[in-house]
Amino acid sequence: MGIDPIGRSAEKLGVVFAVRVVEGGEQGFLDLYEQLRKSVAGTPGHIVERLGEPADDSRQWVITSEWRTPEHFFAWQRSEEHRELVAPLREFVDQRQSLRFRVIKETRGTAS
Question: If you write DSSP's letter for every residue of 25-91 in order, what string do you get?
């Protein structure tokens, strides 16, 4: 991964997957996510995965991940293992949206 002269990452990919979990489907969704999390942890190019729980009653959950390159993510997304893991998702969610973006700037906190 390279950095251009103004400090932008030339390669890294961020992914945001937002889902609205059906009422009563939280445990099934969490069980499915646990399998997905274990699978992705050993995937080449995967940097980090985070699960965000709704802070209100919206039932809107967010999965974010970072990848070393877009190619790493898309290879994993096209894999048979990924397809098998996400197939049951329809049972637990009624809305979903996936956003993919190249990380062009990153700011890390300096306070401890």
Answer: -HHHHHHHHHHHHHHHHTSTTEEEEEEE--SSSS-EEEEEEEESSHHHHHHHHHSHHHHHHHGGGGG
Are the beta carbons of 81 and 39 closer than 8 angstroms?
A: yes
Walk along the chain (112 residues) and give the pLDDT tens digit of each residue. Answer: 444 444 444 589 999 999 999 999 999 999 999 999 998 999 999 999 999 999 998 999 999 999 999 999 999 999 999 999 889 988 999 999 999 999 888 888 988 6
Return phi, psi of residue 104, to 5°. -105, -20
Q: Which residue is associated with the tokens 């991940």?
A: 65
